[in-house]
Every structure is written in C-alpha cells, then in structure tokens.
Write a structure and sequence with these properties.
The protein is of the alpha/beta class. It is 41% helix and 17% strand. It has a domain of 228 residues: Rossmann fold, CATH 3.40.50.720. It binds nicotinamide-adenine-dinucleotide (NAD) and uridine-diphosphate-N-acetylglucosamine.
Amino acid sequence: MKVFVTGGAGYIGSHTLVQLLTAGHEVCVFDNYCNSSPVALARVRQLTNRDMRVVEADICDADALTRGVTDFAPDAVIHFAGLKAVGESNDIPLRYYQTNVSGTMNLLGAMDAAGCRRIVFSSSATVYGEAHYLPFDENHPIAPTNPYGRTKAMAEGVIADWARATPDASAVLLRYFNPVGAHESGRIGEDPDGIPNNLMPFIAQVAIGRREKLAIFGDDYDTRDGTGERDYIHVVDLADAHLAALGYSGAAQGCEAINIGTGTGITVRELVAAYERTCGHPIPVEIGPRRPGDVASSYAATKKATNSLGWCAKFGIEDMCASSWRWQSGNPDGFGDAPHSS
Ligand code: NAD
Ligand code: UD1
C-alpha cells in the first residue's frame, strides 16, 4: 500500500515508519522538522534497509501539501504532524490551532484533490479531560482542559464531518494514552527539545546524568501510593496499532475513535522503580507540588481496539524501560550529536 505520512520524522512517526517499511509498504514522509531531525529518517532507512520519499514542508502550506499528496497518490494517509506541548499551547494557542486544526483541514483538502479517502489520525486521550469514570471508554464525554486538547478535539470533529460528507471515506481517530519507550535497536527514540514535559524522558535524562533529580508532581493523589497513575503504551505497540488501523480503514467506512493503551495504570513511583531496575542505579527524586491540570488516574478501556482492530498491546513496563534506556544510554544527546546522515 502507498502511505503518506505527515510528521513521519517525529517520535511516533519514525517508529511507525519502521513497521510500515518492514511490512513492505511504500511511504512518503511530509515533515518540516520543526520538532525532529532528518537523522531519524536516515536511521529508519538503515534499520529497514528500505528507502522512502521525503518532502520537507509545512502542513500549513496548503499548496505544498496538495502537491505532495497528489504527486504521491497514496492509498491512505497517517497524520502525525502537529504541535503537542500542553504548556506551550497556553502561551501560543493560535499557532496550535493553525497547525493542528487548519493543517488537518489542508490535509483533507489535499486528499480530496488526490482522490484519497483513508486517514488514520493521531488523537490523544487528553480529549477526555477530567474522568467521569474509569477506565476511559470511547463514549466518555469529550471535554479537554487546555488549548492543545481542544485542537485535537476540533481536528477529530473536522475529520468526522469530512468522512460523513465524502463517499467511501474511512477515518480512524487513534486516541493515544501515554506513549513511551523506543525501538529495540536503540537507534531511534524520543528526543525532546529542552526540558522534557513528560515523565519517562525526564526519568531517562536523570538516569543518564543529564539532570540531577526528578520532581514528583504530588504524592497526595487518591492512588495506590499517592502519585499520578497513567496508562503507558510502548511506542512499538502504538506503531503496530497504526498498521492495524490502516487494515481496518480498508474494510470499514465512516469515522471511528479508538483508544490505544494497555488498560493498566502505572504510578510515578512504580515507573521510577521499574527504571531503576533497568538502569541498575537509584534515580533521585523529590516530592514537589501537584502540576496544575493533572488528574489522579487515567487509563484506557481497550475492548474497542481489540474488537475493531484485532490489536492489543504486547509489551509491558519492563520492555518500555529497557528500550528507553537502550536509546538514552546509546544516544545521550538524542539525535543532536549525530551528523545528519548517520
Ligand atoms: P513529535 O513532535 O515527535 O512528532 C511530530 C512531527 O510533526 C515532527 O516530526 C514535527 O517536525 C512534525 N511537524 C510538526 N508541525 C509540523 C508542520 N506544521 N508541518 C510539517 N510537519 C510538522 O510528536 P510525537 O510524539 O511523535 O506525536 C505525533 C502526534 O501524536 C502528534 O500529533 C501528537 O499530538 C500526537 N500525540 C502524541 C502523544 C505523545 O505523548 N507523544 C500523545 C497523544 C497524541
Ligand atoms: C501529558 C499531557 C497530555 C498528553 C499525555 C500523553 C500535560 C499536562 N499533559 O499528560 O496532554 O496527552 O502527556 O503524552 O502535559 N510527572 C511527574 N514529574 C515530571 C513529569 C510528570 O511527577 O517531571 C507525573 C505527572 O504528574 C503525571 C505522570 O507523571 O502523574 C505522567 O505525566 P506526563 O508524562 O506529563 O503525562 P500526562 O500527565 O498523562
């Protein structure tokens, strides 16, 4: 199948490329590298021994996007490109709406021009907002609590309306829980710019000595040990979910939202302990105040993914930590220390 992948050089995109190319699909990546490096694509080529087409451009440039999609004439699109930092989305909301909502509209317009009717979209569990009940199932009310989450909810709505109005269209909205870990080779992984916002890359940077200690954002939540509980999902499992969604989109019409998680919550302290077992030394922590906007617990109902996609997570927390550590210890500065071709 020919698959057009926006944001393919990013964390989740690069891992999905490996699975796509290994499965024999033909790929065109569309990325402006605003939060990624061409080194990731070079490493994907090395890992798979397969080549791909690459267009370096912005999804906000509708003409470039239409040219890119039309020239490649894909059977399906996976849409990863977007901005994802919750804190930043409070500071520059219009850039988030421009990229995540208008960029998605540009992409659907480009697909219309090229006659492509299948899309898999990177959504987020953040669209649910405060939990009315747990686990979150796909019918849980949508009430995001920050601009980033609202852009995802709006993009979901735009895609759903497009699918309704487009004969034979098929759209799958994958609501990711907390993607972590890295490819087993340790050659690609998450490479956050500056101070990591998320827990796992922060722990990894403390473990490698780039940061002194982890601040635990609150230990007085109503959870097993008082720290926040999340549904961490191995990025390779997540990548496989995209291939399953592509298969599903070939057989089903309309628009479906599907959670992608393991269904199991892990607390901050449990994740730190698992990482310590992996790296073999203690990870210094200090208890800090709660982070505004955080919830006590979040984890997925996974039945729909199993029933619709025939997919479920294979990797556990030990695999997530081991692969993260392999990537972090082999690439202490992420892709930053590698020349562009290596
Ligand atoms: P990432 O930042 O590593 O990857 C995003 C990619 O999109 C990058 O390569 C970036 O350069 C590219 N991009 C951004 N804006 C662009 C633009 N205007 N034009 C072209 N390319 C652009 O992020 P990721 O973690 O791989 O996330 C991928 C998608 O999944 C995002 O849409 C994100 O919102 C969503 N998501 C991520 C998480 C997570 O925790 N990582 C959770 C839920 C949802
Ligand atoms: C974050 C995003 C959310 C996104 C999700 C998945 C925020 C506010 N929310 O949520 O939109 O969908 O990632 O990628 O950024 N923690 C610490 N110390 C740290 C970092 C985190 O104790 O330095 C704790 C948090 O309080 C939380 C847990 O670790 O309990 C996980 O945090 P994080 O990795 O940021 O994920 P989410 O809070 O789920």
